[in-house]
Design goal:
The structure holds two protein chains of two kinds. By secondary structure, chain A is mostly beta strands. Chain A is built from no helices and twelve strands. Chain A is globular. Chain A starts with a strand and ends with a strand. In chain B, strand 4 and strand 5 form a beta hairpin. Classes of the chains: A mainly beta, B mainly beta.
Amino acid sequence: AQTVTQSQPEMSVQEAETVTLSCTYDTSESDYYLFWYKQPPSRQMILVIRQEAYKQQNATENRFSVNFQKAAKSFSLKISDSQLGDAAMYFCAYRSHDSTSGTYKYIFGTGTRLKVLA
Amino acid sequence: NAGVMQNPRHLVRRRGQEARLRCSPMKGHSHVYWYRQLPEEGLKFMVYLQKENIIDESGMPKERFSAEFPKEGPSILRIQQVVRGDSAAYFCASSFSDYGYTFGSGTRLTVV
């Protein structure tokens, strides 16, 4: 069974600085997707970035980028030029596919609470 | 496109009552997923439905919980005889392909 581990319950970053959130996972699959979701106090789950495992190039979305190390099963999120609006819970997620049922299941980590200091 | 709509946003039930949570998927999406988020935890898969079919309910508690996605109308997650441990945020997500989910804003259920 796949597992996702986020070992940092809470992180702080100064406004305009850079912060990296860690995520490791365990799987025996070779083809899969990884995601980072942001959950602000409104509870909405907002997709930040996604990475296909077969792509060696790290995904980038504006100030957000990932460091995907497939062999090490590591998928960290880097937030550059942090803004006050980045403060939220961040969840790393692995998407598994059950070929029998066709189900795409997301396995989420326990989250990292990011605080942005003015 | 209004996105994935969940209602109610907040639901308070006394122990022993029934809770009905509704989810209207995005227009054109025929796949619905329900997840539960306990306090200070990530989301955990409960059930995957397509129109009129439960495809995978491996994450659903064996008793008191049921889900449906009728031909017409929203998907419903039903919890009978609620207990305090059912208090959580329940999220619905929809998709039409393997690109990824779109999540709703969740329903926070509080059992008193």
